[in-house]
Amino acid sequence: MNFNAQAMSKFIAASRQATELDKTRLLLETRIKEVKEESKVWAEVAAKAREEAKELRDLNEELRTDVIEKDTRLDDLQKRNNELNTLLEKAKEDAVAEFQSSKQFTDLLDKNYAAGFEDFRLDAVENFPNIDFSVIKLNLGAATSSLLQTSSEDVNI
To answer: What's the CA gap between 30 and 36, in Å, rounded?
Structure first.
């Protein structure tokens, strides 16, 4: 009986060990299922992150293209602005040149020249009362002809 008792004891020990191993197997299988589920969730998160990253890269590329287009448009507008400014300056110069060659301009010069001469004569009479300035007359015809010979650079308007 000793052999039977020993065998029975080994059998009971093996049975207990098998039961423990079965419990461990069940725990491991449960953990494997949990890990697989977690892996699926993380795979979905990773796929979503890759999709969002692609969308952000596409948006970034679109924004870069927009910036290039806007810079190009800005350069074109700056060039056009420069051209228009040049045309405006030329138009101003032409308008001034045309006005300076007009009768209205020479009449205005005559008027201002005569007014300035009268101011000078009155100041001179006031400052030098003993001198007779009545003999100094403005010859507007001579003044006009001399003014017509001067350019706009000679006359400070």
So the answer is: 10
Cα–Cα distance, 130 to 133 (Å, whole number): 9
Contacts of 118 (CB under 8 A, 6+ apart): 138
Which sign, positive or negative, has the C-alpha torsion 100, 95, 152, 120?
A: positive
Task: Judge contact between 111 and 117, C-beta under 8 A.
Answer: no
pLDDT digits (tens, 9 = 90+) for 63-101: 999 999 999 999 999 999 999 999 999 999 999 999 999
Compute the C-alpha angle 64/68/69, nearest 5°: 115
Verdict on whether the full-model pTM lies above 0.70: no
| Alpha-carbon span 30 to 136, nearest angstrom | 126
- For 124, residues 6+ apart whose C-beta sits below 8 A from its C-beta are 131, 133
Number of H helices, E strands in the chain: 3, 0
Nearest-angstrom CA–CA distance, 71 and 69: 5
